[in-house]
Amino acid sequence: MQSPAITPLHQAPIFPSKLQNFLPKIRAFARTNIYRPRMTSIAGFGVKSQVGLSGSSFEDDDGFSTLVEYVGKKGINVGDDLVVLLDHIQYACKRIASLVASPFNSSLGKQTGLGAAAGGGSDRDSPKPLDVVSNEIILSSLRNSGKVSVMASEESDAPIWITDDGRYVVVTDPLDGSRNIDASIPTGTIFGIYNRLVELDHLPREEKAMLNSLQSGSKLVAAGYVLYSSATILCTTFGSGTQAFTLDRSTGDFILTHPSVKIPTRGQIYSVNDARYFDWPQGLRQYIDTVRQGKGRYPKKYSARYICSLVADLHRTLMYGGIAMNPRDHLRLVYEANPLSFLVEQAGGRGSDGKHRILSLQPVKLHQRLPLFLGSLEDMEELESYGNVQQKVNPGYEV
């Protein structure tokens, strides 16, 4: 008997849940005089009424605002080209979310013999099939958008020139934390969007692709991450605040659930690999010892929370405050530090390498690495006051 053909995993459709049958009834009930909540709720998140700069409502007739509605003419109106691009990015991330959650992805999470794209990386950073598939999904979506001239990815040695008339440049880490997938630990996608530097159009393709990708983070037009966890959350900024949207799997829409995200000015959590304590410089050890004893500027004992997935650690920090950090020269300036620092700053926090504001740094290499500290403004100021917090030696383990 011939076995049926199997659909490739990354092409498998997302099937709506039974909840879809009940949503019309829930929404109708919410409109009655029997129960009229001040705040609509989806999956446990409050969805507040939003009013745009022009006074128009961001919500649709059901009281919900989708990602595309929010950034389109009903909302902040970032322009048609950017709306189209973001729509293709969200589509790619929904495909990746389905792939990550699939019960058949265990073989895709295994390492291959490929070397790390950035060079000099350890085997733990080597591309895996899941990284490669995610990278191809994003590249395909950017090509289909018709709005992108260059894509630079952590999974590629060099930027990819897509089209001469694309308005934007996209930098991305397609699947951050993928080595944790077998343990069902949260993963994420990180992206940043720049305008194409038209003054470079006369240069050879390879050269202008590289220079467009090495823009300072201060020139970002938009940035964001997508967290693949118990919920799929897209957190983004366009330079006027930070917003978070949660994927409604019954409709396939990202719904605004966290309008105007503001990171607390002070938290009570730090996120770092404590196993490296004795390799840290004196300043960082002193800071950690001080805050976890409750002897810092904030007189409460800090707790350690470390997932070892950058997007997940940062998302918790945005919600609760504190600091997420990696003091080693490990994280990439172009793909991780710049987009996430832009997003954190727009939420009222700070991104630093321990000495300098991340967005003030000029990248000189595509896969340039550096220490990264992201978090609450007062916590970051206290950390930096200790001076020596960058770990420049890595005895006993690879970078």
TrEMBL record:
The reaction(s) annotated as catalysed by this protein in its Swiss-Prot or TrEMBL entry are: beta-D-fructose 1,6-bisphosphate + H2O = beta-D-fructose 6-phosphate + phosphate
- Domain Fructose-1-6-bisphosphatase class I N-terminal, by residue range, is 76-259
Q: Which CDD domains match?
A: FBPase
User: Which GO molecular function annotations are given, in alphabetical order?
Assistant: fructose 1,6-bisphosphate 1-phosphatase activity
A GO CC term?
A: cytosol
Residue span, Fructose-1-6-bisphosphatase class 1 C-terminal domain: 263-386
**What SUPFAM superfamilies does this protein map onto?**
Carbohydrate phosphatase
Name used for this protein in its record:
fructose-bisphosphatase
Q: Which organism is it from?
A: Quillaja saponaria
